[in-house]
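Hi there,

I know you've been waiting on this one. I reran it after we fixed the sequence typo, so this is the corrected version. Both the input and the resulting structure follow.
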Amino acid sequence: MTRLTPDHAARFATATLGHLDREYPYKMDLVLNGPEDAKPPREHHPIFHGSFDWHSCVHGWWQVLRLARRFPDLSVAAEIRARAAAMLVPEKVAGELAFLARPMSAGFERPYGWAWLLTLHAEAARHDAPWAAALEPLATAFAARFHAFLPKLTYPLRVGTHFNIAFALLLARHWAGSRDPGLIRLIDTSARHWFAGDRDCQAWEPGGDEFLSPALTEAYLMAAVLGDDFAGWFDAFLPRAAGQQPATLFTPATVSDRSDGKIAHLDGLNLRRAWCWRAIAAALGPAHPVAPVAKGTAERHLAAALAHVTGDYMGEHWLASFALLALDGLAD
């Protein structure tokens, strides 16, 4: 099985350090409340003004911090720590919080960026450094947004892009751990309400610009929520998986143009599917007939995508984080 290696780590971290502080091009998530809001990304986002967009910058920071911890002898590990010491500080976090306090900001980065910020905070807490303490107010703010948002989300967001709710809840649940048991209860209640009755998933995917698998991300979330009851749910959700049906879930997506930012999303889909299939196999256990199929499918998806993590900025500004999850998982 393909694993994360020091060579992967060096390649990913070096590429990401090249754009974490690269302010342009940048895609703002911004509602202009007046002419005073028309200012450069760095003035809105003292920390997360690189990597093309806010959420990619957030998970870029998660990625390099995790790689520096996993591979402390990495050639760029000292640079990562130095840059974190300069950027992940209370006064810059205060600037990010000020952006959240603006009018018309309730939907900012909902729910994808919220979840990634919590994941960054969880990683920062594993370092002997003040970074997690600095990020704590921002993490608390986004956790509060999950608490407010989930009770009023009548219907789940099943799309394969940033709005997918299952992916966000996976990351948020991992962060919550012992930090916020109330959020875990809310996530689990919501997931059961939305997904517990799902049967015979048709898996009409991928969409032409998706980077998440709605079917597999839902299954991964339910593995976390259901525990020992997951296998029974999965067998009803994808009853023909042992025979690699629906075939769409077992076939890597074709990426026709990696310079097209939306079509390049499909490389991310292949990496995300690898991550999900590996997690599903682990949750089902080796005796389950789908487990070896899931592992083989994950390998095919990795083979289709890993070579393309770097090369074109439209993928390079974000794909390394997806590759890290696919190779190394979410668990600490």
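Quick highlight: The radius of gyration is 19 Å.

Best,
R. S.
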